[in-house]
């Protein structure tokens, strides 16, 4: 009986010994091991992502001609709308350039946009990070801002040879200097503690007392440009709740993030145009 119990406990004993040994392994070795595993795992995940894209392509090839015609009409309408928006953007950009010249204001930092597909999301930390299918091979660096059609996605926290890990704006580890749309007073934004698959929220601090917001009349929150990571004017979310802070001088509140962040499949990395 006693030898049988030893055989049953042997896997746990081995696991415990391995855990104790790992605690005393130098930090440099742990980082090297983690980086090696990440680089080994990345091609497998990227290949799976490519296969999913191919599967979607052949699934679309099975659609009928009528469905393709209707999709073509919708695409033509969208292209017409985008052309109009591009003309409006060009007009606004020329006005901004003229005002900067008249007021002698510095231009915003320039970025190169690198569009990347999302490889996967971490189910254990759904609102904390995701992996994209581009890395050092496209000159992406740690700290580069990541955006999508709904505004800020997050920032690059790790870069591999062919993939990168993005820390989402919904993560409690992300803090961003923000302002209300049309207001210049600084506000602090931080990601919240969010349950997996639920609506993502964030937290704001240092909101002036004269600001009012509720679900029926939310306030739009945008990046301020302070801190040098995110350019100004990018959408963060809507302030839907405010209450007076403990010091009585400012308010704290809740920010509803864009619901499309839940299912984002493609993002854009803003790579700064660094001097060569």
Which key features would you list for this structure?
single chain; 276 residues; six-stranded antiparallel β-barrel; 12 strands; globular
What is the name of the CATH class of the domain at 175-263? Mainly Beta
Helicity level, as a percent range? 25-40%
Name the structural class: alpha+beta
Q: Average pLDDT value?
A: 82
Strand order of the largest sheet: 1-2-5-4-3-12
Span of the ends, CA to CA: 72 Å
- Note the overall shape: globular
The whole-angstrom Rg is 24 Å
- Encode the helix/strand succession as letters: HHHEEEEEEEEEEEE
CATH architecture term of the domain at 175-263: Beta Barrel
Poorly predicted ranges (pLDDT <50, ≥5 residues)?
none
- Beta-strand segment tally: 12
Number of helices in the DSSP assignment:
3
The CATH superfamily of the domain at 175-263 is identified as: Rod shape-determining protein MreC, domain 2
- What is the strand content? 25-35%
Largest sheet: 6 strands, antiparallel, barrel
> What is CATH's topology name of the domain at 175-263?
Thrombin, subunit H
Description:
- There is one protein chain.
- This protein is α+β, with helices and mostly antiparallel strands and 276 residues long.
- Among the domains are: 60 residues, no CATH class; 89 residues, Beta Barrel (Thrombin, subunit H).
- It is 35% helix and 29% strand.
- It contains three helices and twelve strands; from the N terminus they run αααββββββββββββ.
- The protein has a six-stranded antiparallel barrel. Strands 6-7-8-11-10-9 form a six-stranded antiparallel β-barrel.
- Strand 4 and strand 5 form a beta hairpin.
- The longest helix is centred in the first third of the chain and has 39 residues.
- The radius of gyration is 24 Å and the shape is globular.
- The chain starts with a helix and ends with a strand.
- The relative contact order is 0.13.
- The model has no long low-confidence stretch (mean pLDDT 82).
């Amino acid at each position: 009986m006693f030898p049988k119990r030893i055989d049953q406990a042997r896997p746990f004993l081995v696991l415990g010994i391995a855990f104790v040994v790992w605690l005393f392994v130098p930090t440099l070795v742990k980082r090297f091991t983690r980086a090696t595993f990440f680089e080994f795992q990345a091609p497998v995940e990227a290949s799976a992502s490519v296969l999913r894209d191919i599967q979607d392509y052949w699934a679309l090839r099975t659609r009928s001609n009528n469905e393709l015609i209707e999709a073509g009409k919708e695409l033509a309408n969208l292209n017409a709308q985008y052309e109009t928006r591009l003309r409006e953007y060009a007009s606004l950009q020329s006005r901004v350039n003229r005002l900067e010249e008249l007021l002698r204001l510095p231009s915003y930092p320039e970025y190169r946009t690198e569009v990347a597909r999302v490889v996967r999301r971490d189910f254990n930390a759904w609102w904390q990070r995701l992996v994209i299918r581009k890395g050092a091979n496209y000159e992406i660096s740690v700290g580069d801002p990541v955006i999508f059609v709904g505004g800020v996605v997050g920032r690059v926290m790790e870069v591999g040879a062919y993939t990168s890990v993005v820390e989402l704006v919904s993560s409690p580890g992300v803090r961003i200097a923000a302002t209300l749309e049309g207001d210049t007073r600084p506000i602090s934004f931080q990601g919240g503690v969010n349950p997996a698959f639920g609506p993502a929220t964030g937290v704001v601090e240092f909101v002036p007392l004269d600001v009012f917001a509720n679900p029926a009349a939310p306030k739009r929150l945008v990046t301020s440009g302070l801190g040098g990571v995110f350019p100004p004017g990018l959408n963060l979310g809507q302030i839907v709740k405010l209450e007076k802070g403990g010091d009585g001088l400012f308010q704290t509140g809740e920010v509803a993030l864009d619901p499309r962040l839940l299912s984002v499949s493609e993002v854009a990395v803003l790579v700064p145009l660094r001097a060569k």
